[in-house]
UniProtKB/TrEMBL annotation:
Coiled coil (residue ranges): none
Matches recorded under InterPro entries: Cupin_2, QDO-like, RmlC-like_jellyroll, RmlC_Cupin_sf
Domain Cupin type-2 intervals: 42-110
Pfam families per UniProt: Cupin_2 (PF07883)
UniProt name for this protein: Cupin
Superkingdom classification of source: Bacteria
Length: 161
């Protein structure tokens, strides 16, 4: 049996843990494990964090809030949600989010389709292996590396309307 023909189970803190742009990302499924259908990871984001607005040129992104509060913009739409909130962000549409409140945001992120340019590979390549399953100490990103990788993974930083 190949890897894609075998089921598996991972507990809450299990998976490949990566410190990624100030977050803790735990990769649960890579594209290679889903026959290139999708990648899936859980991301823990510190309070107040606001990643830059961006768009994925060839992937849809779905978020499911497990813990915390978040404000989300997708094109001209805006939403706010807490645990149990599902958000669909279509490919090509600029989007951004901000963690609200004083507790970290824990979200499940699914990007589809998968493939060699799957978002989980961007997380892996941009990040560093997490030494522990806690948020990393804040530090500025390596902007040269970030720009190179967003180009490689066909992600664009954009302004929201």
């Amino acid at each position: 049996m190949t890897q894609t023909q075998r089921g598996y189970v991972l507990a809450d803190q299990e998976g490949q843990a990566v410190w990624f742009l100030g977050t803790l990302s735990i990769i649960k499924a890579k594209s290679e494990q889903t026959q290139q259908a999708y990648g899936l990871h859980v991301e823990i984001v510190p309070p107040g964090a606001e990643p830059p607005a961006h768009r994925h040129r060839h992937q849809d992104e779905a978020l499911y809030v497990l813990e915390g509060e978040v404000s989300i913009r997708c094109g001209e739409q805006e939403w706010r949600g807490g645990a149990g909130t599902f958000v669909f962000l279509p490919q090509g549409v600029p989007h951004a989010f901000q963690v609200e409140g004083s507790t970290p945001l824990k979200i499940l992120i699914i990007t589809s389709p998968g493939g060699t340019l799957g978002f989980e590979h961007f997380v892996e390549e941009m990040g560093t292996p997490a030494e522990t399953n806690i948020l990393p100490a804040p530090s500025p990103p390596d902007m040269e590396k970030l720009q190179r990788l967003v180009t490689k993974y066909e992600i664009e930083f954009v302004e929201l309307p």
